[in-house]
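User: Can you predict the 3D structure of NAD-dependent epimerase/dehydratase domain-containing protein? Sequence below.
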Amino acid sequence: MSDAMANSGVLITGAAGFIGSALLRAFAAGGDGPVTALDLREVPLQERLDGVAYEHGEIRDPTLKEVIARVKPRTVVHLASVVAVGGDDRRDYEIDVLGTRNVLEACLAAGVGHLIVTSSGAAYGYHADNPVPLRETDPLRGNEDFPYARNKREVEEMLARWRNDHPQLRQTVFRPCTVLGPTTNNQITALFERSVVTGLSGTVTPFSLIADSDVVAALAQAVRTGKGGIYNLAGDGTLSLREIAQLNGKPFIPIPPAVMKGALWLLHALGLTKLTPQNVKFIQYRPVLDNTRLKSEFGYAPQLDARAVFERYRDERPEPMS
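Assistant: Sure. Here are the predicted structure tokens for NAD-dependent epimerase/dehydratase domain-containing protein:
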């Protein structure tokens, strides 16, 4: 019997995160074999789920190989990554790119049969000439001046090399668009929640959206079916910032891109924001993701379209504390 055949259960990296913790809850009821949660953050004993083994560790740490070798999972779901834009560029690279390489090497050494990775639609890059919509066969260009997108592209280039060199480690790669749930709180939702929603003139700024519940369901399906492949992860349709403002009952003010770049330059120089003028393309050229392959080949149809995703976020999010 091969190592891959002898392995069982699933190990989730980044298991204490937004999606990781929800995926754990989906598996905690049992039926999927042993479940192991790995995260840099310690989960308090009172918050731990029955039927889940908890490991404290970091994906950049060489001891990750020892953990995966000891657990011997059949499947690894790799969710640990940098989410926030505008952090420490070197640290972000080490986590996203070098950390993923460490996960790949640990999986191969331990005889893991299936690796599921959440990449990002940002791997396509934010470019004026992006196809609309973007399909999985379109080139991954990232952005050299946008570390988040560049790192996601490098991760996918590495994954492609590993698919060629180590086909015994089957891969499922998801490229999510903007993930939104009632408890989402990040730089994207900050755009929605200001008293006045500001966008850019001369661009529609269409947001592809996917519900956190749909992301979890697609990941769980990948674990349970073992199906490999590369899939955009997006609900049907898009919403513009203007439409989002209207749905949220907020006024919308379009600002010329040059004015926005100047404002960010000044705010960044004053230390009031981590964003730079280069980040304007993050709003100006949103990647619009096609989900045909997700539905037809992978066999998962998102339950909520873009409008329903936003309305769920708007209607179910916790009330702000006074």
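The mean pLDDT is 91. Residues 89-110 form the longest helix (22 residues).
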